[in-house]
Each structure stands twice: as C-alpha cells, then as structure tokens.
C-alpha cells in the first residue's frame, strides 16, 4: 500500500485515497459515489489552491509596522527636546546614523510590497465545465419518515422544483436542499418526465440512503427561522381526508384544542407547524387561517345552495385558529375567573359550593341579584343583593349582568360588579353559568379558565345502579330516556362551546369531582397556561 510522505499535499492525499477505494459487495454504491466525488476536476483544483494558501500562511513573515523610518525620526526628535542621559545620547547616535536609516528605509519598502502567492491557473475549459455541470449530488439518510419536502412542476419550463422544505425533516436537517432547487434524479432514476405524484411515491418509498441530483436555485432562500407564533386549533384536521393538501404525507393531523407552533406563514395557503409537546421535531403542513375559512364558506354554499345565505364568519362552523401565548398569574394581579359550565345532570352548583366551603378564604362566589323578598335570616349582600324589580330591569337594560332570568316570578342575575368585588379581595371567583355567557366573560379583564363538567353517563341504566344518578347521590330511578338526554346535552354543548373550554371534568361522583376541581384551582395559581394573545398584549 502506498505511503504518503511528510510533505504530501492535500490533493496528493485525495488522489491516494481515491486510488484505494475498492467497491465491495456491501458498500459498492457508497464507494462508487465517493470515488466520483473525489475524482471531480474542480475538487482537485480547489485542493491545490488550498495548499498554496496554507503554505503562504506558514512561511510568509508579517511586518510589525510599515513605517519604521518615520518612527525612528519621531523618537530622535523626542530625544533632542530635553536633557539626555548617556544611554539616550547613544540611542540618538544610532538612530541618526546613515547605515541604520538605510536599513529602516529598505524595511519599509519591503513591508509595503505585496508578496501574495501566485495561484495555479484554471484550465481554459473550466468555466464551461462548471456552466454545464452546475449540479449538486445530495446524499440524505432517512428512515420511515418522509423526506420533508414538497415538489411542483414549473408551468413555464416543465422542471420539477422543490416547492417547500418542512422544518425538522430530513431535507431541512441536511441543509443541502433549498426551495427553488430543480430535481433531476432520485437514486439514479431521472424524474424529468415523471408526474409529481410518481416522484412523490419514489421519494416516499426510498429508505435509508437516498441520492438526489439537483440543479441549485439561482438564489437560494435563507433557511427558515423558527417563529414564536402559537395557535390553538379550533377544529379537527385529518390530512388523509383533505384532497386539497399538496402532500398528504407532509400534513400534520391535529385535534381541536391542540396548541400549534406555526414556524412559517410564508405560504398564504399552507402553513408549516408543529404540535407543542410532540416529540416529532419535523414540521407538517396545515391549512392557513384564510384558506380554512374559505374552505368552510365553500362547503357551506354547497350545503345551502348557490345563495350562500347564513355564511357568517362568526359562526362556530367557521372557527379555525386562535393565537395564544403562555400566561402565569403574577402575585400583584387579580386571580383569574373560574367558570363552570355543565351538561344535564352535572349539578355544578353543588360542586362549586362544596369547594368554596372547604376553603372560603381563597375561593368565593359572585353574590347574585334578585327581586324576591328577603327572608328573616338573610343579609343583603351575603346571600343575595336584594333589589327592586325596577332597579333590576334598569341594570339588565344597561348590560350589567353576565346572565339573568326569571324563576317563580322573581328575577335572578349575576352582575359583572359582583365578580369584580370578589377579585378585589384577592379571592378566586368561581361562577357557574349557562354556556351562552362565555362570550361575555372571555375578556382580558377576567381571563377566565373554563371548565366543562359532565357526568359519566353509561350506555344503559341496566349497566349501573338504577337508583343512583350519574352525578352522585340518591335522586330516584334514572331511565334510559334520561341518560339519552344527558348524552345529547353534553354533545350539544361540546359542539357549540367546546372551543372555549380549557378543561373537561368527567364527574364520576361528588367526592372525586371535588378533589379534581380543587387540584385544578391550585395549579391555576402557580402554573402557566395558554391564553389568547390579546389578553396579555400591551
């Protein structure tokens, strides 16, 4: 085996290494690939240029300064400006001697000249070769994951172009493939005349090592900078069921309530995003807010006819994303409002009263208003705020209640001021309301944390104790019709208001539900949670 000498250059080392590449049965493809790369003429020229520059760095002396003569004259002038010691007189004599002046003059002349090395000339046909062979051979390694890139056919030239690079995918991690690159071959197979779906299938079926032949884009885009835009998904998305997606395998499935980190919104139709908390670092395609709303409108028109009447962007069917951020209550801030909503059979008022009774110094209810007469044992402002019907109607007309209604010919309502009164005492206010009130309460002032309480409803009363209600306690026989109404109530609330809910609490019994609610309230005071960005933006 040939041995390199101590003074061998890099291009000689490369040539020797190339000569020693011997393809074997296991690594034949890899060896052929390396030999082709190492044998490139352009690489040999670059190695020779590199050696010349390194040799120049090692051997060329660098002058300390370029004007030694002027410095000597300045020192001599400084010495003559005052009384001199014996050593200073000797130094002045040396600096003014003709011989030293000549030496310093020669030094300055040499120091100011350019002694950069003369690089070896490139062959005459080298530029033509580069023009013809401006091709990148890219070797990637991927397992069962997608390549992380989508392609499109250029309508003008017919070329297969890289349309987008997915963050965190194999193509992105390599840093070798860019948007705008033209794809020529995949593992030696030409893709020039193949359809995009055939190319996508070829890429997805390739496992392990994959070799791409690419013509670089004229101007490569900068790699995507990871953004800090977070969105709460307000709908479910299944890419495999979406015919509009440019690449189903690149799509990111998610469920309503998932938090998505949108890493780029450069494409107005398809964003790239990652699910927060997902171990998969590769970003996926999700429909943009604008595109999803447009899709909803089109589907609504298909259902309602060409008139499209009733297409309201505020309708739950049009919900897409809500921009969110992390928020943690600070010591000097008022506690967040806790809102309980419940489906039929949840008995949330009982749950609320039980938690407050356990710790009345930390939790409290908003004292409601009523027009009914005060009972002897009651105090105004404790059980209720007792007001006249005229005053109640005036307050209702001025939108002072978050909700109000009539019961046995008496009016009842919970006012916004009653909530503020509890929070002013640095207590966490817990209210149970009808779901319709959520839109009124979801403000930056209250920053409500919404808990949807629903009883666990068995499929049939025959599968449970017939005398025990789902919420716990003895409330007589529960029929199958009752269970069906409970299920339907929970489904209806979830469909209409589920996107406003932060937590779903399944109530097995009163004791376990109370313990779970208490744990939620304790974490709410010390941990951070996702809230709409508009609640904390200053």
Automatic annotation (TrEMBL):
<keyword id="KW-0728">SH3 domain</keyword>
<comment type="similarity">
    <text>Belongs to the MAGUK family.</text>
</comment>
<dbReference type="Pfam" id="PF07653">
    <property type="entry name" value="SH3_2"/>
</dbReference>
<dbReference type="InterPro" id="IPR036892">
    <property type="entry name" value="L27_dom_sf"/>
</dbReference>
<dbReference type="Pfam" id="PF00625">
    <property type="entry name" value="Guanylate_kin"/>
</dbReference>
<feature type="region of interest" description="Disordered">
    <location>
        <begin position="292"/>
        <end position="319"/>
    </location>
</feature>
<dbReference type="InterPro" id="IPR004172">
    <property type="entry name" value="L27_dom"/>
</dbReference>
<dbReference type="InterPro" id="IPR008144">
    <property type="entry name" value="Guanylate_kin-like_dom"/>
</dbReference>
<dbReference type="InterPro" id="IPR001478">
    <property type="entry name" value="PDZ"/>
</dbReference>
<feature type="domain" description="PDZ">
    <location>
        <begin position="137"/>
        <end position="218"/>
    </location>
</feature>
<dbReference type="InterPro" id="IPR008145">
    <property type="entry name" value="GK/Ca_channel_bsu"/>
</dbReference>
<dbReference type="InterPro" id="IPR020590">
    <property type="entry name" value="Guanylate_kinase_CS"/>
</dbReference>
<feature type="domain" description="SH3">
    <location>
        <begin position="226"/>
        <end position="296"/>
    </location>
</feature>
<dbReference type="Pfam" id="PF02828">
    <property type="entry name" value="L27"/>
</dbReference>
<dbReference type="InterPro" id="IPR036028">
    <property type="entry name" value="SH3-like_dom_sf"/>
</dbReference>
<feature type="domain" description="Guanylate kinase-like">
    <location>
        <begin position="335"/>
        <end position="522"/>
    </location>
</feature>
<dbReference type="InterPro" id="IPR050716">
    <property type="entry name" value="MAGUK"/>
</dbReference>
<protein>
    <submittedName>
        <fullName>MAGUK p55 scaffold protein 3a</fullName>
    </submittedName>
</protein>
<feature type="compositionally biased region" description="Basic and acidic residues">
    <location>
        <begin position="292"/>
        <end position="304"/>
    </location>
</feature>
<dbReference type="InterPro" id="IPR027417">
    <property type="entry name" value="P-loop_NTPase"/>
</dbReference>
<dbReference type="InterPro" id="IPR001452">
    <property type="entry name" value="SH3_domain"/>
</dbReference>
<feature type="domain" description="L27">
    <location>
        <begin position="61"/>
        <end position="118"/>
    </location>
</feature>
<feature type="domain" description="L27">
    <location>
        <begin position="6"/>
        <end position="60"/>
    </location>
</feature>
<dbReference type="InterPro" id="IPR036034">
    <property type="entry name" value="PDZ_sf"/>
</dbReference>
<dbReference type="Pfam" id="PF00595">
    <property type="entry name" value="PDZ"/>
</dbReference>
<dbReference type="InterPro" id="IPR014775">
    <property type="entry name" value="L27_C"/>
</dbReference>
């Amino acid at each position: 085996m040939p041995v390199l000498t101590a003074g061998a250059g890099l291009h000689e080392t490369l040539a020797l290494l190339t000569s020693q590449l011997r393809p074997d049965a296991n690594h034949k493809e890899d060896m052929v690939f390396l030999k082709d790369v190492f044998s490139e003429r352009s690489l040999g020229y670059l190695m020779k240029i590199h050696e010349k520059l390194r040799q120049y760095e090692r051997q060329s002396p660098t002058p300390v300064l370029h004007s030694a003569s002027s410095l000597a004259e300045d020192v001599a002038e400084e010495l003559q400006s005052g009384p001199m010691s014996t050593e200073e007189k000797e130094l002045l004599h040396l600096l003014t001697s003709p011989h030293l002046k000549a030496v310093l003059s020669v030094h300055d002349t040499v120091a100011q000249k350019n002694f950069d090395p003369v690089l070896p000339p490139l062959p005459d046909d080298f530029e033509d070769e580069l023009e013809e062979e401006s091709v990148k051979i890219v070797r990637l390694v991927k397992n069962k994951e997608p390549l992380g890139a989508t392609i499109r056919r250029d309508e003008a030239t017919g070329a297969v172009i890289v349309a987008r690079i997915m963050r965190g995918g194999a193509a992105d991690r390599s840093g070798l493939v860019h948007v705008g690159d033209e794809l020529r071959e995949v593992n030696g197979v030409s893709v020039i005349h193949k359809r995009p779906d055939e190319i996508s299938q070829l890429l997805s079926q390739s496992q392990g090592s994959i070799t791409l032949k690419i013509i670089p884009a004229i101007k490569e885009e900068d790699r995507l900078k990871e953004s800090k835009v977070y969105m709460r998904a307000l709908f479910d998305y299944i890419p495999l069921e979406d015919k509009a997606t440019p690449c189903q395998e690149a799509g990111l499935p998610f469920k309503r309530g998932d938090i998505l980190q949108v890493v780029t919104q450069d494409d107005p139709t398809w964003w790239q995003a990652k699910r927060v908390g997902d171990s998969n670092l590769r970003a996926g395609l999700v429909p943009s807010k604008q595109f999803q709303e447009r899709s909803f409108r089109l589907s609504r028109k298909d259902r309602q006819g060409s008139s499209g009447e009733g297409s309201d962007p505020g309708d739950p069917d049009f919900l897409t994303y809500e921009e969110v951020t992390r928020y943690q209550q600070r010591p000097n801030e008022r506690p967040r409002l806790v809102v309980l909503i419940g489906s039929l059979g949840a008995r949330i008022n009982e749950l609320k009263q039980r938690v407050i009774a356990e710790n009345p110094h930390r939790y409290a209810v908003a004292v409601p208003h009523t027009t009914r007469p005060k009972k002897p044992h009651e105090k105004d402002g404790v059980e209720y705020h007792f007001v006249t019907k005229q005053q109640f109607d005036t307050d209702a007309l001025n939108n002072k209640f978050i909700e109000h209604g009539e019961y046995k010919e008496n009016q009842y309502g919970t006012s916004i001021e009653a909530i503020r009164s509890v929070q002013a005492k640095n207590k966490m206010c817990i209210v149970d309301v009808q779901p319709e009130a959520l839109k009124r309460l979801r403000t930056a002032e209250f920053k409500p944390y919404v808990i949807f309480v629903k009883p666990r409803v068995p499929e049939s009363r025959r599968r449970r104790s017939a005398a025990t209600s789902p919420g716990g306690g003895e409330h007589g026989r529960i029929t199958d019709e009752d269970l069906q109404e409970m299920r339907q109530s929970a489904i209806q609330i979830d469909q209409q208001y589920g996107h406003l809910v932060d937590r779903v609490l399944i109530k097995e019994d009163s004791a376990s539900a109370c313990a779970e609610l208490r744990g939620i309230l304790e974490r709410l005071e010390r941990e951070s949670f996702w809230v709409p960005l508009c609640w904390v933006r200053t």
